[in-house]
Structure formats: C-alpha cells, structure tokens
Write a structure and sequence with these properties.
Rossmann fold, globular, seven-stranded mixed sheet, Topoisomerase I, domain 2, alpha+beta, 5 domains, seven-stranded antiparallel sheet, Topoisomerase I, domain 3, single chain
C-alpha cells in the first residue's frame, strides 16, 4: 500500500501535522508513519534563477546589457537550504509515494513555496491541498477530512508566479540601471518605489507648508464652554485677528439666551474584526511595534501557541460556517480580564450582524479571531500577550451590542452672534465596555467642532451669563509625517492621499500597494536600504531616498500603476485574467523603465560622504542611520563593506534622561548624549554596581526588564547587567 507525502512550510508546522496524522518515526528532514510521510520546506527552497544563469555576461553589471528579458524564467535551488530540498526531492521520487498533500501556508506565497519545489523536482503524481485558517489539532483534522484537489489552486499559483516574475523583471532591471548609471547602491521595485514616493511627497508637503494664523472664540459660562460660529457659513474659524478680537470684545460681559436644544439618541456599532493591516496599525499606535514585528508575533501565536487564526488575511469578516464555533472560541479566552465580558456574552444568545458575518467579503481567509484552543496567558511573552490582548478584546467587541448615547446640542445667541455647545451622555456602553470607555474626545486641544463636554439640564429661553470670553490664536498645521501605522493605511488606501479625482477613483477601484502579507517587508526593506529613517515614531525620507524618487522612472513612482498590477494578480488568482498577458505587459514595461533611466539627465550626489576610506576597496565610506544606530557603509555595491559607528542604547543620560549612544570598541567604549554628557563604559558599570547596592530587588528587576528588551542591539548593556543577574541567582 502506497503512502501520502505531506509538505509543510516549516518544521514546527510539520511536527504538528505529524502528531495529528499519527506519524512518530523521526528521520532526517521528515517524520514518517504507516500512511503518511510529513516533510517540510524552510520557507522557499527554490527560487527564480539569477541573471548570470541565463547569460555569463550578466555576472558584471553593465548598462549596455539591459534590459534582461529571459525567454523563460528558470528555477534554481537555494544554496543555503539545498540539503532540505534534496530530502524533499528524494521523498517526492520514492515509488511508495502515491500522492502529495500541499500543506504550506494557505495563501499566495505558501502556494508558490510548494509549487516551485514540485516543478523543480518534476513531480507528476496526484496533488491535494490542505487549506486551514488555524493550527489547532481539530482544525488540522477537519482540514484533512476536507482536502481539495490541487488543480483548484492552479490559478493562485499562476498569480504567485506572476508576482515573483514581475518583481524579478522590474526590480532587477531598474536596480541595475540605476546602480550602473549613478555608480551608487540604488534599488527600485514595483511596490517599494511608490511607497517611498508617498513618504517623499509627504515630506515635500510639510516643507512647503506655510502656517496661517486663525482664531476661535470661546465663551465660558457656569459649568461649560460655548464656541462662536459664523452665522453665514457655519465656520468656527476666523482668519482676521481684528474681527476675532472685535467679536470677543462684543460678547464680553454679555448674557446669552438659549435659542435651541436638540437631543438625539445615537448609537455607534462595534468596530470590524481585525485583518492583518488593521492589527499592525493598532499595534504600532499602542505599542510602537513595527509592521514586521507584529506579523512575526502573530505568526507565533498562530503556529506555536495555536490561539489565533491565520494572520496574513485581508478580510475583516467571517463566513457563516464559523458562527457555530463562536461559543467555543469565546470559552477559549474566558480567562483573566476577559472572563467577565465572555460570561456575559455566553449567558444569552450570541448576536451577529453583517458587520461580522458576510461571506461575500471573505477572500481566502476570514478575519483574525481566537481559535477554540484554550489560551494559557502565562505561556505568552509580553509582546505576544499584547497582540493577543488586541485580538481578544476586538473579538469580544464585535460580539457585543452597540454603544448608545444621547447627544445634546445647545444653540445660543448674544449680541447678535451665534454660539453652540455639544454634550454627550452615555446610555449603554456596549462594546466600549471592553476598552474601559477609553475616549480622547474631551481633549482640551480638540477642535471646537469635536469637543464633547458634560452639560447641565437646561431649557430653551434660559439665560447664560458669560464669565469670560477670549479669542484663541491658533495656527493651521501641516500634514503629519507618517508613522508605520499611518503608512500602512496609505499603502492600503493610496487614493486618500491623491488629489486627482480620476486617479483617486482608479486607486479606490483597483486596491492598494502590495498585500497585507507583503507590506511589512516592503517597509522594512526601505529602512534596511537607508531610504527612510525613524525619529521617535515618525518616518523621514533620507537624502538618498529623496534623490531616488527623482532618479526613478515616473511610471514606477505611481501608486496607480502598481495598484493596477496588484488587482490584475488578484484577478489571475480567481481565473478572471490571463497570466501570459500580464507577464507580456511587465516585460514591455521593464524595457520602457530601463530606457527611461538611461536617458535621464538627473544626477545623484552622496551628501553623507565621509573622509574615511573603505579598508577593502579604498572608496570613501558613507555614514548612514541604521535601525540599530549609525553605520559606515561602502558605496560600491560589489564591495558591500559596513561597520557600526555608534549603537543607540537603552541607557538613559543621568542629566537629560535621553537614550545615549555607545561608541568605540573594547575598553575604550564611550556613552555619549546629544546634551553633551559623556561617560566611559567602565564608569557606567561602576554606577550600575552602586545602584545594585543601594536599590531594592524589585527596582533592580524592573530596570533589568527594561534593559533586556534592547540586549540584542546593545551587547555592552548586556555585559553591564551580567553582574546583576549573578547576584540575583545567589
């Protein structure tokens, strides 16, 4: 009797599958049983061949050899993981293997991982597909009971292959053209370049912004504040100082009369469930996590802890077949601070609306929600706990009733002028109870239109004595710089940031830049290539990034073009578009883009050139701000030399409390601060010893926990804390 080979994407997933399938014989690179053999990739084992495979002249980068347009794209085994590929290939070739079950991640890239291995190995036997949204034992068993024919996913594979080939044809050709033309390490891509263009465009808007003064008029009465409103246009802003002061003076000492009181019963429905992009946004706002960090944490919660469903989803709804599982999913999170809210939901019938259940709005995977596997909060790291908390609370919220409140709007008149005040009284917290009614709408700095305040009981005709009236001078603000949270929004909905009406409609129709699964890597790549840098949570384009947008072909900077491509890839995955036509168009476009770079008259200038020569090739090194501190890198692509200059540590300056940089090597390492404070590492260690002697154990543990977060980028701090650890173990 033959056996079934199961191909997972990672060893950890392979072991989970093997356990459920009763495979218990461990071998080198696979686990076997009576009926199944489970093996795994290590991410991609096979990839598109490098240019030199097609032609030896491509080993050198020369403008005259571009564009590179192979007749047929070839596959090659990745050298670093070739041993595991050999194991998988050997299993695929075994006579006892009758069929293959693809069990890689259930998405476009997971399909590509498996199909490239299958194609390279020449496997021709029957193929089935495991398609699951969670890694619990029950989900795996159900998935194996509902295996789908491999051919059902042929279109998904075609879309994945088109994406990879498009990135090769566009990215490699334009990158080589830019690098050769300007003799600098420059790169471009069909998603990364328009994403960088968004950041550069925002920076240009900020730099060209000229603030304007405007005034608002507020009248303080007993218990609340009224805001002046223009009778003619309803605006609360005046751009004429003299007029604002005249109105304020006119109202001072006056008594107003309430002319209208309007009370409205309002309700605010629960938010939508999380897709990956929304979760990354919230994690960045709340905890400062990067998009890539959030995805990595989510992957662990999905694969290892099995408490959350598949992360790489663009859906914010669930399908109707999931509804029956909702009680069990609630029970799985009925622990700790969630227990009370969960018990309240389980007491009655769980109500779902179209804001949660909508089959038409679910693509490959439903929204991110808890699984039926009970969670052990103590087994989660602090970071995992934070992400789980976001998802668990959102899950409870989407099953909770609406937030209901009464909004009161008061209109008053005094000295011929109109004023208003707005108040809100909560009737039922509903889903907001999950978040402890956290609401920032009462911020003193909020615009007058948005301010909510408590209002006393009043009636039409009541008199209001103005205790004080003042004209507040404010300035119009430039658009805010992107954070990772707002950049993810811009990538998902680039039409919001475009003024051209036709272009906006096109972008709204075709979709965003990249996919939920790829956006984190795109942002990370922009940091790693020093096109953008972070100051606090704000993202700034570097001089290199700004110049690259000027150097890049105009078409490649367009969010419209790449969004259209992404929509075409989606259509290919659904069998609505031709993969051949897409690649033909990409090849033509690659040729056009290369010609555009070659014919461009724009020049590139290194503005961060140092007087330090590269020890390997002799060129002057560039100083850049990496994510872990300042570095010196060689501008020569083939050299690739880089060296750390200063690490941003977690050690705080004792004078101004800012984080200090750690410079130098060995015994000469030195902490420096922007305020001018300097301290040798040896002196720092001495201060730590003194703190150890004078501080209680809890204080030390708290400080150590803060430092531990940064140990991976700050080995000097780790060394300094080693003495503390030894003391606490005694």
């Amino acid at each position: 009797m033959g056996k079934t080979l199961v191909l997972a994407e990672k060893p950890s997933v392979g072991r989970d599958l093997a356990k459920v399938l009763g495979c218990n014989q461990n071998n080198n690179g696979y686990i076997s049983g009576n009926k199944y053999i489970v093996t795994w990739a290590l991410g991609h084992l096979v990839t598109l061949a490098d240019p030199e495979v097609y032609d030896k002249r491509y080993k050198s980068w020369n403008l005259q050899d571009l564009p590179m347009l192979p007749d047929k794209m070839e596959l090659t085994v990745i050298k670093e993981t070739s041993k595991q590929y050999g194991i998988v290939r050997g299993l695929l070739k075994q006579n006892e293997v009758d069929e293959l079950i693809i069990a890689t991640d259930a998405g476009r890239e997971g399909e590509l991982v498996a199909r490239w291995i299958i194609e390279k190995a020449g496997f021709r036997k029957p193929i089935k597909r495991l398609w699951i949204s969670s890694q619990t034992d029950n989900a795996i068993r159900e998935g194996f009971n509902q295996l789908k024919p491999g051919k059902d996913f042929d279109n998904l594979y075609r879309a994945a292959q088109c994406r990879a080939e498009a990135d090769w044809l566009i990215g490699l050709n334009v990158t080589r053209a830019l690098t050769c033309k300007h003799n600098a390490q420059l790169s471009a891509g069909r998603v990364q370049t328009p994403t960088l263009a968004l950041i550069v465009q925002r920076e240009n808007e900020i730099k060209s912004f000229v603030p304007k003064d405007y005034w608002t008029i507020e009248a303080k009465t007993d218990g609340f504040i009224l805001t002046w409103k223009d009778k003619n246009n309803g605006s609360t802003q005046l751009f004429d100082k003299a007029k604002a002061e005249a109105i304020a003076s006119k109202l001072s000492g006056q008594t107003g009369e309430i002319t209208d009181i309007k009370k409205e019963a309002k309700s605010e429905p629960h938010p939508l469930a999380y897709d990956l992009t929304e979760l990354q946004r919230d994690a960045n706002k709340r905890y400062g996590y990067s998009a890539k960090q959030t995805l990595s944490i989510m992957q662990t919660l999905y694969e290892r802890h099995k408490v959350l469903t598949y992360p790489r989803t663009d859906s914010r709804h669930i399908t109707s077949d999931i509804v029956a599982t909702l009680p069990d999913r609630l029970k799985s999170i009925a622990v700790g601070s969630y227990a009370g809210a969960v018990q309240n939901l389980l007491k009655g019938k769980i109500n779902t609306t179209s804001r949660l259940v909508d089959n038409s709005k679910v693509s490959d995977h439903h929204a991110i929600i808890p699984t039926e596997q009970p969670v052990r909060l103590s087994s989660l790291s602090a970071e995992e706990r934070n992400i789980f908390d976001l998802v668990a609370k959102r899950f409870i919220a989407v099953l909770s009733p609406a937030y209901q409140y009464e909004q009161t709007t008061i209109k008053a008149e005094a000295a011929g002028e109109q004023l208003f005040a707005r108040g809100k009284a909560t009737k039922t917290l509903g889903w907001k109870a999950v978040y402890n009614d956290r609401d920032d709408s009462n911020d003193d700095n909020a615009d007058a239109e948005d301010r909510e305040q408590s209002l006393p009981l009043m009636q039409k005709g009541d008199k209001l004595r103005f205790l004080s009236v003042k004209a507040n001078n404010r300035k119009t603000k430039p658009p805010a710089r992107y954070t990772e949270a707002t950049l993810l929004t811009a990538m998902e909905h680039p039409g919001k940031y475009v003024e051209d009406k036709d272009l906006k409609e096109t972008l709204d129709r075709t979709g965003g830049l990249g996919t939920p699964a790829t956006r984190a890597d795109i942002i990370e790549k922009l940091f790693d290539t020093f096109y953008i840098e972070k100051k606090g949570r704000e993202i700034f384009p570097t001089a290199k990034g700004i110049q690259l947008i000027d150097l890049s072909p105009h078409d490649l900077r367009s969010a419209e073009l790449t969004a259209k491509w992404e929509q075409q890839l989606y259509d290919i995955s659904k069998g609505k578009a031709s993969s051949g036509a897409f690649i033909s168009n990409i090849r033509t476009h690659a040729e056009k883009l290369v010609s555009s770079v070659i014919s461009s008259s724009v020049t590139y200038k290194h503005d961060n050139l140092t007087r330090t020569r590269c020890p390997q090739c002799g060129k002057f090194l560039l100083e850049v701000n990496g994510k872990k501190g300042r570095m010196l890198i060689c501008p020569d692509r083939e050299c690739g030399y880089r060296k750390g200059v200063a690490q941003l540590s977690n050690a705080r300056c004792p004078e101004c409390h800012k984080k200090m940089e750690l410079k130098g090597e060995g015994e000469g390492r030195l902490f420096t601060c922007s305020c001018g404070f300097r301290e040798k590492l040896s002196s720092f260690n001495k201060r730590m010893d003194e703190m150890t002697e004078s501080s209680d154990k809890r204080t030390i543990q708290k400080f150590m926990h803060q430092q531990k977060k940064e140990e991976s980028i700050n080995t000097a701090m780790a060394d300094a804390l080693s003495k503390w650890k030894a003391m606490q173990e005694k």
